TrEMBL record:
Residues 4-172 form the Ketoreductase domain. Coiled coil: none annotated. InterPro entries: KR_dom, NAD(P)-bd_dom_sf, SDR_fam. It comes from Amycolatopsis magusensis. Belongs to the short-chain dehydrogenases/reductases (SDR) family. CDD domains: SDR_c (cd05233). It comes from the Bacteria. This is NAD(P)-dependent dehydrogenase (Short-subunit alcohol dehydrogenase family). Keywords: NAD, Oxidoreductase. The keyword NAD applies.
């Protein structure tokens, strides 16, 4: 197996941390880029919504670790919730800035880096089944994930001639620190699990293998895909 350099944004906790640990266990060089540089797992400070921060982090990563082979655009947030007609604009703007703008900035910067380095790399975006199945109160978040899916397809088309693949993994709800409040509400959790044919909310371990697969040579003929990991929820 060739050792690759893998960058995971938002990799200090939740899904990102699980992804980073799995790549590291497989013997790859893993760079955890996170806005919380004080987090135990963080290697590089990065605010994906800020172009200057993206450029600075990319310069540091390539200087310390060499060319990037895999980018996992994992960093994201909901920032709150509520009906669209009364949603706080700061919640909306922050969600768009991180989930959509941030994914775009990272894809733009790392895609250009891969082209310049001649790297036949892989980019995996973390989307959501919310891009295709709406839930009241999460319209702002789901719109950004629909944008991520569209960006995944466009980037896949544009980067394919350079040997760079771009795909996405679209989980349903996942048990992470971000969903801890919701998951601890027995009634809310039961109501959501009733929507899932397999009957349970995903763990981080349920999501990670799909990311590793899409980044691997075994997925070499896959690009522009958004793979649901949802226990069948999109079927309902």
């Amino acid at each position: 197996m060739n050792k690759r350099t893998v960058v995971v944004t938002g990799g200090a906790s939740g899904i990102g941390r699980g992804i980073a640990e799995a790549f590291r266990s497989d013997g790859h060089r893993v760079v955890v880029a996170d806005i919380d540089i004080n987090a135990a797992a963080a290697d590089v400070h990065l605010d994906i919504s800020d172009a200057a921060s993206v450029d600075a982090a990319l310069a540091l990563i390539t200087r310390e670790y060499g060319p990037i082979d895999v980018l996992v655009n994992n960093a994201g947030l909901a920032g709150g919730g509520g009906p669209l007609v009364s949603l706080d604009l700061e919640v909306f703007d922050r969600c768009v800035a991180v989930n959509f703008r941030g994914t775009f900035l990272m894809t733009r910067a790392v895609g250009a880096h891969m082209i310049a380095a001649g790297t036949r790399g892989a980019i995996v975006n973390i989307s959501s089944i919310g891009a295709r199945q709406p839930t009241p109160g999460l319209g702002h978040y789901e719109a950004t994930k629909a944008a991520v899916d569209a960006l995944t397809r466009s980037a896949a088309l544009e980067l394919a001639p350079h040997g760079i693949r771009v795909n996405a993994v679209a989980p349903g709800p996942v048990l992470t620190p971000m969903t801890a409040g919701f998951a601890s509400d027995t009634a809310a959790r039961s109501a959501w699990e009733a929507r899932i044919p397999k009957g349970s909310i995903a763990s981080v371990a349920d999501v990670v293998p799909s990311v590793l697969f899409l980044a691997s040579p075994e997925a070499g003929h896959l690009t522009g895909v958004s793979l649901p990991v949802d226990g069948g929820q999109l079927l309902t």
